[in-house]
Amino acid sequence: MGAQNVSVTAQNASVTAHNASVTAQNASVTAHNASVTAHTASVTAHHASVTAQNASVTAQKTSETAPNVSVPSPNVSVPAQSDEFLPPSVKKVACLNIKIDLTQFGQVLIHNHQTKHIKMASLSLGLSRKSPEQLIALGNLVAGKLAPAPPNLPPLPDMAGKAAALLTATTAAGAANTAYENAKTALVTLKQARDAAADALRVVHSATAKAVESEAMGDPVKLSSSGYSLAADNSTSSEPPPKVANLSVTAGDDDGELDAIYDPAARAVNYEVQITTADPVAGPWVTNCSPTQSRCSINGLTSGQRVWVRVRGNGANGTGPWSDPATKIVP
Fold this sequence. Notes:
Layout: H1 2-65, E1 75-77, E2 97-99, H2 132-146, H3 160-216, H4 220-225, E3 248-251, E4 258-261, E5 270-276, E6 286-289, E7 295-298, E8 306-315, E9 318-319, E10 326-329
Antiparallel strand pairs: 1-2, 3-4, 4-7, 5-6, 5-8, 8-9, 8-10
């Protein structure tokens, strides 16, 4: 009887252990199901978040591209909402059914406002670099544009006075340029005759001075009484040439040419002639010629351009100071 009770007890213990194992398995399955449910909820929430972001981007793009339409107040109807089929955890939301009839309007004005920072435009003139012919052509063009012949209308108001003044100055410049062009050939001939006569006069001066020196026999008083200047004693001087004086610049024989003429400087063996088209104070200066005489032809210049010229003497005892600059517009 006692052995039978022990066997029953053992069976009961086995059944209890089996039931405990089944309960543990059920708990594990329940936990797994809860994990799956939580993961599913997380995925659903992620999809909802992505959907909301896409909807927000779409709404923003629609707002940016939507026209500004001015319409009367639309006919808005709000249907009654039933709470019968809504669960307690869901908030009640009133849905608006908006109906807008645009067929009653003739036109819809669409305004697209854009803010831009616009730089004010200006004119490019470059007047100092234009030749007389270019200035005259520009004057005729602008005067005709600002004061067109009827029935054309001027592009800018209140410019008739300015256009008339510009046309008057252009006409005067045109007449002067025509006279210059007509006389250019004659001027070249006259200039060549003048230079030839000056060269002949130099020869006569040289012969006369030699005759004076021969008669005076080195007497400084007699030499000075002739009207010629006494030569400096270069054999005892250790100074460089003095500053060149009386520099003048005139138009050359050809277009794009200038002539520089200046007084000879004592103790100067040769001269250095420089030009600039930028700034007579700061330069830059460029050497154009190095003559041994007190004159120089400056070639290769641009017609209509203003040029500054300076010169200095070079001697056995060094280089003298620069002359005061002279200026001329290139013909």
